[in-house]
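Fill in residues.
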């Protein structure tokens, strides 16, 4: 399960760009190797944007600088994730082959400038990428510094050239098989859209929700096709582990599909810690880390985070003491086996020259950022035993890209600022996370049987077979929670017949019928009472009818006052809960606390104050590692429920935990 075979250490380092300094400043490279050792850095991503510095002219290669860097990395004991540099075409390609550029939605072709601006189906670009990848793999596959492969960088390309649109039509033909089936699935009689040729389907057609949904599916499949091509080129010579860097819940790309091609998951995370947002940010990035662990059920790598100040944040706030280490402990506690940075050294010019880095423009080891990273790096060996330890999750939150796309391409339910699928999933996750339980983040095609509780907020689209699998999960003893705007459409973005949620199948499961949904104006006051507390409802309130379900709460106002707002239905050995209205964090936190206890899901540590966040990993010998984070700017003291060893601070066994403002630590409890 380890990311790197035979390397039982936490990976620590970052994106390194020596080619930006060579050949004019070789002294910078000498200095980098000195500073890497002082910072306790052992692993680097190399060559991400180096195509033009390697293939200096078409068919003319210069590997001399990369040979030297790789050799010196081996001499200094550094592990390298060698990148395939496909994210940025070289200048000669952009100039000589302008047709390699993407075509925008308005039909204009993008000039050669930025990264991820090449058409993934252009034959020149594809051939050039494969040639470059193969040459890198052939040359360095046995190099002692090579740890693995960093395939491209932040895939995100969308192109609407004739070649891509033609490939989209081929995608449709494969998916639907015949025009007759396409017309049926596309409800093509609407506005006279009956198709007599595949080429008549336009992904920009504002009338066709399903065409826009299929275009999003195609974009993922198109990027996957290119990713697989790059993987195949590398695999001709190398079997070292490979991945690509994801970007959280980046909307246009379904990362669950990408994950299946990776040997490990790599992600880029750039939280802020603004006043008043600390808990929300900690929950948000816990959500992302839990998803990336769940994707392959194994430790992941934080490919990019920022040790200083990301240049694109609205407030470029200096990190306060302890915030950086707490952020790293957050990732490690949720399953990371490595924390790496963008970037190692700040460049002198252009778009990312102000982006934070371990080494600043002064090039010294005296900056606060460098000293903080070095202190963190020096302590990592104290907790190296966590590498390859596992997580144990009994509750899961469901985030599904296809549900996101379907909801956002559907005309209705207000605009995107009201729909807020991603924020809603975040909110439900946060309410569970506040109880300090181990959580998984899954999509609708994952196995459900591993969990006692599944929460599926706003699962607007149900893919084929999901309804049956949800019923089987509950029938077998699981507890399922769904909400308003769930199971409205099938995988063709077509509304279910037989009513919501999900037609006959899910109406039976939940014992409820959602007749309609009330989109609430801001001035409309709606609420329901639960456990003696009144809870405000905003944005959405479904008009529900109980069909066998127990009614746990009813609406207090409007013409549907007294109708169900919250229901629970026994089904087989389990139960299905339906939340018909959008509520705030307070209700969800209390409600999920009751539900977790009912499901027998306990906090990883009992009695944790709200000012703390805690996560847990479990070693092969059942040793438990606890990561405790102080989410406040004040010192916090907490009596531990049992004695544990403070690994991070090296202070031996403790019975009481004292954390400084924004502080964190790693504790160990031996089995037995």
């Amino acid at each position: 399960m380890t990311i790197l075979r035979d390397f039982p250490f936490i990976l620590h380092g970052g994106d390194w760009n020596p080619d930006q300094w060579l050949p004019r400043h070789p002294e910078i490279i000498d200095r980098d190797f000195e500073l890497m050792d002082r910072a306790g850095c052992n692993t680097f991503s190399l060559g991400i944007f180096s195509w033009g510095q390697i293939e200096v002219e078409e068919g003319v290669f210069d590997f001399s600088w990369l040979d030297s860097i790789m050799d010196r990395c081996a001499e200094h004991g550094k592990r390298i994730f060698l990148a395939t540099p496909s994210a940025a075409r070289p200048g000669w390609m952009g100039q000589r082959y302008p047709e390699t550029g993407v075509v925008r939605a308005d039909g204009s072709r993008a000039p050669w400038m930025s990264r991820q601006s090449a058409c993934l189906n252009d034959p020149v670009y594809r051939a050039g990428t494969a040639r470059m990848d193969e040459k890198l793999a052939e040359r360095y596959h046995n190099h002692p510094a090579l740890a693995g492969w960093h395939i491209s960088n932040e895939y995100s390309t969308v192109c609407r050239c004739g070649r891509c649109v033609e490939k989209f039509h081929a995608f449709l033909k494969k998916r639907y098989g015949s025009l007759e089936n396409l017309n049926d699935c596309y409800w093509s009689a609407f506005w006279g859209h009956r198709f007599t040729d595949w080429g008549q389907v336009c992904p920009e057609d504002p009338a066709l929700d399903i065409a826009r949904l299929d275009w999003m599916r195609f974009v993922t499949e198109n990027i996957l096709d290119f990713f697989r091509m790059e993987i195949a080129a590398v695999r001709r010579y190398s079997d070292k582990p490979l991945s690509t860097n994801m970007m959280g819940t980046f909307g246009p790309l379904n990362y669950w599909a990408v994950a299946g091609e990776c040997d490990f998951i790599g992600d880029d995370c750039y939280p802020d810690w603004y006043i008043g947002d600390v808990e929300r940010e900690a929950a948000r990035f816990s959500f992302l880390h839990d998803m990336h662990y769940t994707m392959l059920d194994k430790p992941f790598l934080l490919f990019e985070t920022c040790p200083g100040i990301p240049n694109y944040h609205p407030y470029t706030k200096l990190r306060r003491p302890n915030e950086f280490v707490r952020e790293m402990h957050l990732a490690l506690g949720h399953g990371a086996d490595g924390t790496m940075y963008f970037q190692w050294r700040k460049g002198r010019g252009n778009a990312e020259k102000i982006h934070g880095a371990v080494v600043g423009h002064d090039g010294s080891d005296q900056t606060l950022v460098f000293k903080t990273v070095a202190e963190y790096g020096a302590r990592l060996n104290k907790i190296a035993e966590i590498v390859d330890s596992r997580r144990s999750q009994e509750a899961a939150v469901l985030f599904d890209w296809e549900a996101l796309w379907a909801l956002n391409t559907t005309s209705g339910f207000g605009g995107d600022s009201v729909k807020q699928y991603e924020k809603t999933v975040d909110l439900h996750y946060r309410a569970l996370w506040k109880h300090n339980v181990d959580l998984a983040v899954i999509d609708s095609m994952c196995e459900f049987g591993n969990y006692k509780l599944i929460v599926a907020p706003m699962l607007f689209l149900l893919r084929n077979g999901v309804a049956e699998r949800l019923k089987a999960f509950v029938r077998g003893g699981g507890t399922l929670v769904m909400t308003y705007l769930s199971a409205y459409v099938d995988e063709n973005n077509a509304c279910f017949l037989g009513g919501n949620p999900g037609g006959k199948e899910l109406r039976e499961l939940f014992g409820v019928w959602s007749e309609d949904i009330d989109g609430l104006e801001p001035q409309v006051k709606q609420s329901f009472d639960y456990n003696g507390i009144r809870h405000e409802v905003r944005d959405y309130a479904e008009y529900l009818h109980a069909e066998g379900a127990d009614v746990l709460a009813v609406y207090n106002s409007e013409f549907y006052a007294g109708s169900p707002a919250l229901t629970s239905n026994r089904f087989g050995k389990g139960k299905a809960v339906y939340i018909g209205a959008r509520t705030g964090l307070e209700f969800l936190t209390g409600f999920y606390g009751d539900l977790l206890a009912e499901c027998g899901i306990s906090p990883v540590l009992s009695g944790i104050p709200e000012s703390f966040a805690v996560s847990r990993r479990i070693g092969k010998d059942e040793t438990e590692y606890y990561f405790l984070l102080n989410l406040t700017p004040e010192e916090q003291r907490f009596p531990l429920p049992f004695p544990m060893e403070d690994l991070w601070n090296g202070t031996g066994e403790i019975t009481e935990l004292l954390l400084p403002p924004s502080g964190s630590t790693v504790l160990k409890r031996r089995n037995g």
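The longest strand covers residues 636-646.
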